[in-house]
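Continuing from the previous page...

OK, I double-checked the sequence for DNA-binding protein against my notes and this is the correct one:
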Amino acid sequence: MMESDEIKSIQENLKDIQGVLSEIHGFMRDLKKDYSPVDESISLDSSMLAMLLNVSPTTVYRWRARNELPYTILSSGACAYRFDEVYVAVKCGRLRARGFNRIEALRTLSVYRDGIIRGCGFEAKEKDA
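Thanks. Re-ran it with the corrected sequence; updated structure tokens here:
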């Protein structure tokens, strides 16, 4: 008798957990839809990208030259990078360099995107001389 009650209790708890997970999944799906147009519209120049990823401009150039980093050449001759493409390149591990911290780069990119969405901009940290 006791085992039957325990099993019913566990089954009810599992149904509750399944409901919560379904809500979270729906929230995450909606959030992804909300972020997608923003990610596509954020454009970065080479110096901003180097600062966000904490790499040198030369490293950005090398990634671009090896076609590891998607980019567009503007009419002014400058290179522009779409945020969503950069994020995917970092997340997939396509971008590699000595001392490059992929986890930290993803965190910094997320903070930057959230700042753009909130209209706060992004303040670069001053490096010690």
